[in-house]
Records
---
Amino acid sequence: MIIIFLLYASIILFIFNSLTDKFCKKLEMNAAKQANVFRVTNIMILILLVSSYVKVLNAMI
């Protein structure tokens, strides 16, 4: 189960990072602001992925 979820999480992170990269390029952000946007996006997505994993684990028990 954990291997499947790790694969799912890596795909989700890749998709959101590519979308964030396109967004930053479209707005022509400087490097410092891009780093901040990527950091916030990745932290939020990781929180969502961890909470969904915990929810799946609780549903299986």
---
Amino acid sequence: MTSMDDGTSASTPTNALILPDVIYPVIEQLDKSGYKDIQTDLRTTFFKLEELYPGFSRSFLQTFINKEMPSLSSTINMNELTLKLEKYCDKSSYFISSSRSEQEFHELNIRSKNLKRILSRIPDDINEKREFLETIKEIASAIKKTLDSVSNTYQYFKTADGRQALENEKKEFIKYSKNFSNTLKAYFRDSKRDDVYIAANHLLVQTDYLLRTIKLYCETDTLDDCLYPLLSHHQNQSRIISSSRYSSNSNQQSHNIRQSSSSSSGNNRPTSSYETGYT
């Protein structure tokens, strides 16, 4: 692994993954050591601290490593670590529950899980150019299939607010997908792996937010908000981006949206195709 990074704002997606991919799994093991009664309180405390002080969990983990495992402190890269750990963590709570038996939701779960799994392979595959190029092709295909599956759930949204929320999250997902594509192009020029890890972590987080929107409007179960650290930051950023977008020239806005997604069908379903631009 490359050297440990400093947890700057550019690595916000990694900060959001430290809790579910590193801290929470450790807390879940406390019941085996006789500390099950403090699990919920500890989990909630970490979440609240992360919300109040974005990056707290990352700093806490780095401090622990520096003190308890100093030999590793200069070699662990948090952006790489969270990306690799994604495939080992139990993320079942993020996906659409079995209470929705429709095929569209089942397909969405499968495709979004596959996207996360392929993204988590990047640190292992990036060392071999041929393998990495194949992984990139798989990611592009997985992104498109995930977006198509998201569009297929549109029919189950009963309110205009829900449909607009889904459309907003899709646009965010597409934006970060394009950012990932551009980062890959830059990587083949400058070989900055860490930028690739951060861009991939952005996609992991955006996939969670996209699924969260569907769960919020299509499930009756109460959401566990502790699963989504830095959600308030994400929502604030979305509002800023949205405000900026709507203040621009309307013709340019329409052009940008067409570039990021295909035209919606006659029944006003949200757009779903994704132009990767990897080549």
---
Amino acid sequence: MTRPITAGIDGSEESLAALSWAAREAVRRDLPLRVVHAWRFQTHDALDTGDRAAQERWVREAAEEAVRAVRERHGGLDVTTDVPEGDAVETLTAAAAGAEMLVLGSRGHGRLMGFLVGSVGQQVIVDAERPVIFVRAGDKASDEVAGHEVVVGHEGDPEDGAAALGFAFETAARRGATVRAVRAWTLPPVFAYSPSSLQLLDEAGGLEPFERKNLAAALAPWRERFPDVHVVEHVEMGSAGQVLLSVSGTAQLMVVGRRARRSAVGARIGSVAGGVLHHADCPVAVVPPA
């Protein structure tokens, strides 16, 4: 089954930038594009919507207008439009389940509903089964130029983060871009070391060589699968979020793995993904575990 690239829109500048990004990526991957405008009937003195049917018509017209511009730029692209009424998180999560990826504006505020505000955006990331890409307003195709890289973060053991690495390599291959694989490390407390870990560190020659060895092992299967993709191995001491953000200025896309958790106060994404989403200068892909 062919999965479309799905863009969630709400009429905001951010969501329209996300739609443009999704359309370009659909063309690169030769996939159809599905555009979803989630909405709920709302009464508001400032909105002259009349009734439910009138409000739905307004939403549909707004979605069709956005799609019309995409069709003009990408004549051969297969585009469908859906305007389901319902809860934003549930609608977008369901849309992501059947998609190659879900593309959203990072700060969407439509006149009827802004679906990417605070905890709602986090909930979509937590619940989505597929990669979720966040695009800021102002993103342009001109930003995807030669020399700009697809940056991907890696942490943990070599077998960890395979889904994020795979997404980064496939995206870079489609764009003819370099993958910059980033692994940050810090000095842990001495008591965190077990005798076995101390032996591994000693065999590796120290902490940084140990981290480089882990990153090289994690990249090996992807280098073999995508031999034409140039790879830069970036190992640096510091917090993962800070190191990733330091290279975001020249990135086409930032790819991070998802480490989400639920609590009594709602869903929470990991600190690295959260920091990158708030501060990166480029689109960010959050990829769930395989």
